[in-house]
């Protein structure tokens, strides 16, 4: 029966949904029932065509009467000539928990047919309808209304065959034309449309948003549709029964509460809106991320394009720089030997002048010592014989003048292989120096600072030095004359290097340019240093006391001082170009200064010591002595030369004034040697600020003042005026706080002098000083009081001042 109901429902659905053609429902066969028995079997609906109808008529002749060929529910006349097509419906997926079981078409009180009736289930012939009507006689209230009174009574024959019952439709009720009537297609279509509209209103949201339980609603609606179809079929089948048959009324029970469904739909809509909002926000975020990724990709692409362009420019530029600096290095390599030769020539010039100056100074000291000793011996011998003062002076002078010639006569002849006297040049130089001394002797006797000035150099040697230096300078200016403008000076090379560093700093550093730049600029600095001397004036017309040209005043220094600096920004701490100038000073200037200290410097020359100390002091600004080996070597050489100067140049003879008064040359020599000692003190003090004060104080106070000058000061107490002048010269050179300790001897001598003056005040008054006329016997009391106060002897100073009324 379920198969028959399914076939009828399919027919009604096609009619209600407006299928183009309709035909009679085919009879259920045994094969169809077998197919419907399976749980997952498909339902096949076949609409007969003209060809199939003829076959079915021939097949049904043995079952029904020839006059009742068509069933009352047949639509054969309307669908004549229709084509046959088959629709396959698959059962819904899932378990049957949400499906409503289809109801049977049979009346609840219908008898269960036997096996033979089951085989012919689904056939609605006249005989079958009569059997159904007779079966309902006992249940209907009015069976006579549905019976044909002319037809024979229903019963079973002895053979067990059934007689067909003529079915007559019941007459319509008064006032109710549609009672128990079969609805036509229009009514069915209208009812279906009304029901579909109501169902669409309830389940419209489910078409767009999946609502939990929607499948159950659809199944419920399908069950209601099935119930309605069963009702219509039941009405049709009940038409053949009696008038009093009860009507089975199927009440339509709503499967889902409308309000609950509406609330669920509203909640589902809200949830859907929330999910849509989340989806929209996610889509917006994805779009933003996509935009950001696109912008990043575009920026990366642009960056790669720029880098590619920059790489091409960098490659081209680097090739140009490689060619330029390769040519520059080749040029400097060719000029290197020329510059080396010029530097050797300049060094030889300085060595020759330094040697000549040293030889001249030592020769003067040796000649003066020889003359003074000869005069002292002659004067002492004359006084011992009882000669007068004048006779002693004449004997001393004669002995002193012949001392030089006697010294050379006592020497053995020094001849070479050709018989030439090798000492002839030295003898002639000694005679020349002696003549110079005789010419200035009277002037020296009137000098208070005798010996403090530098010894005069040989004019010929000085002239040769400046002539050679000018030639070296001229040659240096021609070294780069044949080179191009881009290679002949510092500015163009500096511009190329700085441009490279500014445009491609990484490539500049990778090419080791910070380490190579000093070697590129060194030849130009070396050429300029050829005319620079840390010991001598620049030209022959320059004053002898002029300081050496400062390093920062040189042209190469001003060109390279700001090399590698970016405008508005300081040089980085790790930038190798920041040490370019100190590196050049260490590699170029320091060797020149070291050579001058060891080979050319005369420590007895105050002018040379002052210039050299200034140069070394300026170098310490760029080179730390504790870190630079070259500076340590220079300062060590300076200490050694100063110590040698004190040992060999500060000797002061300790001759008594009584004897030196009879030997003028001996007196002049002693005064000169004291002046040389004062000059040595000035030379030592020139290094103040370069060497440690402790070392300088030891040299000046312990070795010069206490060891050489103090004996001379004690001897000069016999001539108070000359003793005060000597103390003033010492105090004028050394700081007062240095005249302590071992140098306290100066204060002691000054105090003794003050006591001597206070013991003979009449010999040191203003009149006595004026009458003394520089003889050195009278003491200016005001100067004595000031010296005592400077040396820290305030008591003695006050006593002298009170005695002579100076307060």
Number of helices in the DSSP assignment:
27
What proportion of the residues is helical, as a percent range? 55-70%
Overall 3D shape: elongated
| SSE sequence, one letter per element | HHEHEHHHHHHHHHHHHHHHHHHHHHHHH
Number of strands: 2
Give the spatial strand order of the biggest sheet: 1-2
Tell me the fraction of residues in β-strands, as a range.
under 5%
Structural class: mainly alpha
Largest beta sheet, briefly?
2 strands, antiparallel
What is the alpha-carbon Rg in Å? Answer: 71 Å
Q: Which consecutive residue ranges, at least 5 long each, have pLDDT under 50?
A: 1-121, 138-167, 175-180, 205-209, 211-219, 240-251
Mean pLDDT, rounded to whole units?
Answer: 75
What assembly state would you assign to the polypeptide chains in this entry? Answer: single chain
- State the end-to-end distance: 159 Å
Notable traits:
27 helices, two-stranded antiparallel sheet, disordered N terminus, 807 residues
Mind explaining what this structure looks like?
The chain has helices at residues 2-16, 30-37, 50-59, 115-119, 126-135, 185-203, 214-237, 258-384, 389-401, 403-409, 424-445, 459-477, 490-503, 505-510, 513-529, 555-560, 580-600, 606-622, 629-649, 657-660, 664-685, 693-715, 720-733, 744-759, 766-772, 781-790, 794-803, and strands at residues 43-46, 86-89. The chain has 807 residues and is mainly alpha-helical. A two-stranded antiparallel ribbon has the order 1-2. Helix 23 (720-733) runs parallel beside helix 26 (781-790).
